[in-house]
Design brief:
Distance between the termini: 25 Å
Number of helices: 6
Largest sheet: 6 strands, parallel
Number of strands: 6
Order of helices and strands: EHEEHHEHEHEH
Strand order of the largest sheet: 2-1-3-4-5-6
Helix content: 25-40%
Structural class: alpha/beta
Shape: globular
Number of domains: 1
Length: 174
């Protein structure tokens, strides 16, 4: 990655809080290493947020089973953005969430997984996945995504997940 690369971590506001916190923690860590990184919700083109810089060289990071299932389709990536997107996979093989992640990760430029066993499965299924090792972060600078939240059932979240499991993956626009 060149020194001028900007990373944009894209989450889903209706997604699992832990998944968005994971994106925020990784963004925090790469910023500490001198990389320009931001976290946005629901769109690959956050034009309304002047603090977020995205252009034709931006590399996106997304948790595919969360983002493509729960973010509004209007914010989904163009083909050009997909070609600069890394899927951060987190689900266990043999689950519907793993299969959903795999299907969407196949549309992105690269895939990485936090579990070594999942990397092996993804590779056997034709994805050139790499292992992404999680580590400690001090939590400073994580921003509002890491703030405590009230735990309550997410009916809309569950309904969207149920619908998406039976639907084919969405196609890129543009």
């Amino acid at each position: 990655m060149s020194a001028a690369t900007t990373l944009c971590f894209v989450g889903a506001s209706d997604g699992n809080h832990f998944m968005n916190e994971l994106l925020s923690a990784v963004a925090h860590t790469v910023r500490a290493e001198g990389v320009d990184a931001s976290v946005v919700m629901d769109t690959f083109s956050p034009a309304e947020d002047a603090s977020v810089h995205v252009d034709d060289s931006t590399v996106y990071v997304v948790i595919p089973h969360e983002y493509f299932l729960l973010a509004p389709p209007a914010g989904h990536p163009t083909r050009g953005q997909l070609a600069r997107t890394i899927s951060l996979c987190v689900e266990q093989p043999g689950t519907t969430w793993f299969e959903l992640s795999r299907r969407h990760a196949a549309r992105t430029a690269a895939a990485m997984d936090i579990q070594r066993s999942s990397v092996g499965v993804l590779r056997r299924l034709g994805l050139a996945a790499e292992h992404f090792r999680l580590g400690y972060t001090d939590g400073r600078g994580l921003g509002p995504v890491a703030a405590p939240v009230e735990c309550r059932p997410r009916v809309r979240h569950a309904a969207a997940r149920s619908r998406a499991l039976s639907a084919p993956p969405r196609r890129a626009v543009g």
